[in-house]
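Slide 14.
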Amino acid sequence: MGFVVVLLVQCSALGTWVFSVLGALVAIPVGIKRKSLGPLVFFGTTGTMLDIIIGMTQCEREHAEHQLKLLQDSQNSTTTNAGTDSFS
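Slide 15: predicted structure.
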């Protein structure tokens, strides 16, 4: 669990807000028309869930790209070291 928290802090998963705002902007007029808070709850929570899902997906993608880059750098340094050792 601690790794997930560190991963979230290191990437931009907590910086998404677009769908939350859109959900609220849609919910306010609908809620006024229906005279109910139900649309605000529905659209607000749906927007927030979309923001979280998209943020987590983006974070996982960034983490995978970072891990791939580290693996490629490691393989390149191993190949370079093996090539220089054969000339010694």
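Speaker note: The longest helix spans residues 38-87.
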